[in-house]
Structures are given as structure tokens and as C-alpha cells.
Amino acid sequence: LIGTPFANRNRLEVENLIGFLNNTLVMRAQLRDEMTFVELLRVVYQTSMEAFANKDIPFETLVNTLKPDRSISTNPLFQTMFLFHHALPVPAFAPGLQMEHAPFDLGVAKFDLTLYLAESNGQLTTIFEYAKDLFQRSTVERMQGHLKTLLEAIAENPNQKMAELPLLTNDEKKRLLTDWNNTRRAAPQDVPIHYFIENQAREQPDKIAVAAQGQHLSYFDLNKKAEQLAARLQAIGVGKNVPVGLFTGRSVKMITGILAILKTGGAYLPIDPDYPKDRIAFLLEDAAVKIILAQPHLLDRLPATTAQVVSLDEKTHRSFVPEEVAPDDLAYIIYTSGSTGRPKGVQVTHRNLVHSTTARLHFYPQSPGTFLLLSSFSFDSSVAGIFWTLCSGGQLLLPPQHIEQDPDQLATLVFENKVTHTLLLPSLYSLLLQHAPAEKLTSLHTVIVAGEACPVGLPKRHFDKIPNASLFNEYGPTEATVWCTAFQILKEEATAPIPIGRPIPNTEIYILDKNKQPVPIGVPGELYVGGAGVTKGYLNRPQLTNQRFIAPPKWLNTQHFPQGPGTPKLYRTGDLARYRPDGQIEFLGRTDQQVKIRGYRIEPEEIKKVLEQLEEVGEAAVVVQTIQENGMEKNGIERLLEALLSLNPDEADRLLSSIEQLNTNP
What we know:
- By secondary structure, the chain is α/β, with parallel strands linked by helices.
- Among the domains are: 2-166, Chloramphenicol Acetyltransferase (2-Layer Sandwich); 218-325, Rossmann fold, CATH 3.40.50.980; 604-660, no CATH class.
- 29% of the residues lie in helices and 22% in strands.
- The radius of gyration is 31 Å and the shape is elongated.
């Protein structure tokens, strides 16, 4: 809705009156992507004629009749005003006396935004009036540039479709597409990820590589045990791109198993023993897993399977024969979308993983001394800690299961092991900062939060408690190999909305509209990822892969995409974002209903379908709510317990029993 004034002097009785008789018309313009500018012009003309046919109705009468919701901060019905007028020639009063039109600034914006358009001597002149509480000067200056670009394109070809008309100036286009994506860095291209760990075993064999609950392995021992296990896997047919299920808890054997599978050329499929058996069965069937590496004491948690189960303790007399692993061979398969609906297996290559790991060496000023791995290895965030640490010669610390539920014990672990680096959910880090003594966290040098939007209050609590530790906010989907943007949060920025940063080395970020055209700075659009981190797609899901992994638009120069052979792809994240004027990216939410809770991707629609399987449920609705208490998000377990306590025991038992029997797989 746009307001526009008119003189309202169409009656003889007001011809000689002096005064301001203007009235305001409110006009609606409805645009369609397929509409050309000429067609839009006809529609606006028709709308204008219909509006002028009813111009005698005062604007105040219209407001009083329609009774819209009112606010003292906004004008009713419309907040944008448009004025167009032909500038009359300036009269000549006397020789040597010249007069000209000039705008007069009252210093007050009458509406959120007003555009004055004047035509004089065949030229158009624009003046924008704007509310400084809503717009920055730089934003309005960009609008003026967009309008000029738009009018020039219309003048050149008025029959273009509206969706194809350009908005960006050449300068803004260069910044968005080239300058802010200038991320090229030298990186290894033709080596598999485990070569970096083997190199550490040669250079510092006696240094501790991994420690867990009183056990530890040096780099030499880790490499040796992995080769022994790899020889056993080779003996039973594991080779390049063969998926191997890894069924283990947090232990040094978990890392041995990962490295052994990589050495054979196989792809490890992490399976959390805490998963429901139905979900485990689905993962094994969907990935066509024929071999499972497992810890013996966990075998009772495995569902019935035809796959061969190999103990992580098994040995063989056969010697390990190194496999020539190519960059585009699979390194691992990780399933996403939480525990609802049909999970999707993301196929990640060695090229992807080497990129993701070496990008950390470029981005972060210090590699891990001791990295505390809090993520389950079935989450791709575990990949960051495991390979960044082991490829750079640090110590990987695996904590006891569920230690994150006890912040004091977690802080003690950090203190006793002199942990320097960790990556965790913002919600978990908030709890740690709230409950842990500051003296137990002083060893921390680098803290990374990821998996959820970083709340505004978190950085202040961080710098208040451990001011010498650097804080980073990472963003990235599994389909882009863990991360694709990052932002270092400085102390002076601790109270501002936290952006997700800029693209990491050898990564491109594009924020596009629904027609896959770049949006201006400050305008929301869907975030697309290009570069070396974009994975091969979803296992056994070609249709979904083609929907989410798309060919770049024709306007995009992809010659610099370091993705390896084949046609480069952009990954369509489904996330809404926008560029700030300084080039930092703000995360705004989702284009669909998907949410992240405690790092899990959750599809509310899938939960709705599952709930409706219950006989007692006729129709279900799923709503996500964030409850804050004292500036902190309330623990999900506490909220669930409160809900159960509000029921009588029989009701609670029936509800829990029904939930346990639900089929959460297709």
C-alpha cells in the first residue's frame, strides 16, 4: 500500500480559496514475477483511475470506516508516500535575477519513507525522505542507486519481466559477488585426510593423540592400531567407497576405528549406540552396510542385521596394504534431520573433508593444544574437533558420556586437562558459564559456538567470566562439510546481534531471491553455498539431491569454484540471511518450518504425522517455543518433566508408553 497526495481542487467553489486542500489516496500495487513492466504500467494506471474516481472521500473518513489497528509510531494504512510532479519553468522577473527550485528540509520525516520524483527539462530528479530510526543514510543511498539501475533497465527494454529487471549497481554487484567472496587460499588438493594424521605420527610419534577416561594413545600407537584394524577390514572386503558402520561410544577405539576405515578407502558411518533400534536399522539398511565395527559390550544394542559385525578388538596376521584413495572418494556418511521423518545420508568426500580441515588452519590463529570433543560423533560438528586436532598435532580429549548434563564436572574436566579449544552449542555454553567457576575455565583459548543461533547475551557472559579466551560463532550445514561461515565475536560487539560472519577460505556465499537473483545488501534472501565444501549429495536420494544441489545461475562465474571435476554445484540451504553493509552475514531463520533444537534438525510437520499415528489423537499441531528464564533458555528436560508432572501418574504412563511405540521412520 502506497500513499500519494492530490490537489483536491476540482470544484469551482474552491478555485479562489487560499489554503492547503490536499487529500491522500491509498493505492495497492500487486506485482507478479512473470509480469512485464508494460503490463504493470497498465495495472497501475487502472488502479489510479479507480482511486481518483473515489477521491472525494477524505482520508480520515477512510481510516475511521476501516478502523485498522493503530499505533502512535506508524501512519494508518500506509507508511510509504510517493509524489510525482512536473516542475514548472521558473518565471523570469528581471534581467540578472535568476531563481531555481530547491528542496526544503523540515528535519522531520512524515512517513517511514517518502519518494519525491520530479520531471524537468526531460530529466528525472529523486529525493528520498526517511525516518532515521528505521533507515541508515547508506541504506537510502543504495535504494537511490537501485532505482536508477531499475529505471535504466526499463528504459532499455520495458517488456522485460519484473523478476528479470536488475536492481544492483555495478559497485554493489562487485562487492556481493566478487569482493566478499574473494576467499581463495592455497590448500592441498590431491591427498586424503588420513595422510595428515600419518604425517603427525612420523613427526611426533610419542605425543598423545587421543585421550579418554584414563586411556590414551600416542600418534605412533594410534596409527599402528589403525593399520592393524584396517588390515582386518581389507581381509573381509572393505575397499574404496564401501560404507562401514561404526558402532561405538566415546573411547580411543572410536578414533582408531575412524582412522582404520579411512585407510582402507572406506566411508565411515557413525552410529550412536543411544539411537533407538528402529533408527539404527534404518541407517544400516539405507546405506546398504555390510560390515559393522563395534565395541563388544554394545552388541546388545544392535538390532537384528545381516551385516557382518567386527569387534574393534579383532586382529589379523595379514599386513596392511595402503590404498590409493582419490580426493573424490567418500570419507564418511552422516545422516541429518534429527530423529523424525526419513533421515538423509550426506556423502562427504576426502576433498570436502581436507578443505573443511585446512580452512581451519587458515581461519583460526591457533591450532588446538587440547580439544574437548563434546559432540556425538554422529553429528558433523564432531568432524571439526577430530580432524582439526589430529591433523595439526594436538590432543583430542573425549569426555565421559553425558558429561554435558553436569556443568561442574565439565568445568573440572576442562581444568584438569588444560583444555585450550572446544566447540559446543550456545545453550550448553550458557549453562557452563552460568554454573562453572571462572578459575576452572582459564585454560580455554578458543571457544566456538555452533549448531544454534547465538543469543545476544552469551558473549557478554563469556567475556565477563573468561576475558582472555577468544569466542567464535560458526555456521554451516552438513551438506557444506560442517561449516561455511565464521565470525570472531569481540568484546565491544558483545551486545549487538551476532552475525554468522563471512565465508571461510575457498567457499562462496550467495544470498538470492526466489528467482535466484542476488538480493541487495540488507535485503533477506535464501543462503546458497558454493566451493570446495559442497558435498556429493544425498545417498539414494537423487530427486532430493537435484532439488538442493543446483547448477549455478548463468550469471555466476564458476571458474574459480574449487570443487574438483564435474559441474560445480551450489547448495541451497533453506536458511534466510542478509548481508550487513560491512559484509558480515546475519542469520534470520528458515524458509520452511525446519528448526534446530539442541543442534538437531527438526521437521515439525514430520512430528505432526507421527503423533497422528496414535489412536487417541485426531489431529496434531507442533509449535516450537523458546522459554527464557533470567535471560537463559530453559533446559528442555526440565520443561518436559514439568509437563509430565502436570499429569496424573496414569496419564503420564499412557503418554510415555504411546510415544515409545511410535514409528519414527518411514
